[in-house]
Amino acid sequence: MNENINNSDLHSVENCERVSEHNNIVNEIQNSMPNLDTLFSLAELFKVFGDTTRIRILCALFKKELCVCEISEIIQMGQSAVSHQLRILRASSLVRVRRDGKSSYYSLDDEHIYKIFKLGLEHILEKGQ
Amino acid sequence: MNENINNSDLHSVENCERVSEHNNIVNEIQNSMPNLDTLFSLAELFKVFGDTTRIRILCALFKKELCVCEISEIIQMGQSAVSHQLRILRASSLVRVRRDGKSSYYSLDDEHIYKIFKLGLEHILEKGQ
DNA sequence: TCGATATATGAATATATATTCATATGTTAA
DNA sequence: TTAACATATGAATATATATTCATATATCGA
């Protein structure tokens, strides 16, 4: 958790050199920013994308709906690990499940995923990894 | 690190019920996926977005170039913490620095950031946080 | 040069989290 | 109902990482 904002721990960074502008700039930008809850949720979402196993699962699901054991084989990871990660993806509404007999079939639950994925790829292609 | 793929540790998930299709599906999708290095880099990139402090820094920089002590005040975090996070943002080519006298001025280094940010916001608005 | 300011960074610590193991739950077929 | 299969999940462990503290580096003015 990185939400432990503790003013008393802050170093005494009062004002830097551009004194007159300084406070105006700080206030202006503070007011323009989304509230902390929103930014926290946003970070939580990207955290879900920030794991190779989950990225690989999402990427596999771009093609088609898959059951857990198929995902497990495709990305060469144990069933348990895959299930745990699918739970996280479910909790973020990135995938949905459909039960059919003994199997659970997972599919993407959001049209933003592919776009985010693609923008990320463009960034690393341009800037290098 | 989550790259320790160890086949010998995998459970004996050989085939699920749809036996005939199974191997074809697995192969087809494995072939369609970007290589592991690319997906690893992609996860690394999103990991950078997956922290509230860094998201707040990026969000502050949407408005204008800022020096470290301004960022520190805007997001109400210590100078050291901010510097550490800026280093990570720099390493991912998400921000760039310009030195001017005693201050370092940071700005966004990528036009994808805002788009990714926006898509993420759309997701949490639709799906709830 | 010296002191003040701004930033950067190594080390330590606390916290978060991914994987594994063991096992529970749920489903189907015999 | 029992056995086999598919998936889910709690607990433990190992690893990663965010923040803080102390301190180093860099720039400027007196």
Features:
homodimer, DNA-binding, disordered N terminus, 3-stranded antiparallel β-sheet, 129 residues, 6 helices
Describe, in plain words, how this protein is organized in 3D:
The structure is a homodimer of 129-residue chains. The N terminus of chain A is likely disordered. By secondary structure, chain A is mainly alpha-helical. A 3-stranded antiparallel sheet of chain A has the order 1-3-2. The first copy, chain A, has a domain of 85 residues: Winged helix-like DNA-binding domain superfamily/Winged helix DNA-binding domain (Arc Repressor Mutant, subunit A, Orthogonal Bundle). In chain A, 59% of the residues lie in helices and 11% in strands. The first copy, chain A, contains 6 helices and 3 strands. The structure holds a DNA duplex (30 and 30 nucleotides).
Give the assembly state of these chains. homodimer
Q: Mean pLDDT of chain A, as a whole number?
A: 87
Number of helical segments with 4 or more residues of chain A: 6
Instruction: Report the largest inter-chain contact.
Output: A-B, 79 and 79 residues
CATH domain class name of the domain at 43-127 in chain A: Mainly Alpha
Report the CATH topology name of the domain at 43-127 in chain A: Arc Repressor Mutant, subunit A
Write down the overall geometry of chain A.
elongated
Kindly state the percentage of residues in helix of chain A. Answer: 55-70%
Fourth-level CATH superfamily of the domain at 43-127 in chain A: Winged helix-like DNA-binding domain superfamily/Winged helix DNA-binding domain
SS-based structural class of chain A?
A: mainly alpha
Biggest β-sheet strands, sense, barrel of chain A: 3 strands, antiparallel
Strand order of the largest sheet of chain A: 1-3-2
> Would you report the number of β strands of chain A?
3
Residue stretches of chain A low in confidence (pLDDT < 50, at least 5 long) are 1-14
What's the order of the H and E elements of chain A?
HHHEHHEEH
Rg over alpha carbons of chain A:
21 Å
What is the second-level CATH architecture of the domain at 43-127 in chain A?
Answer: Orthogonal Bundle
Strand content of chain A: 5-15%
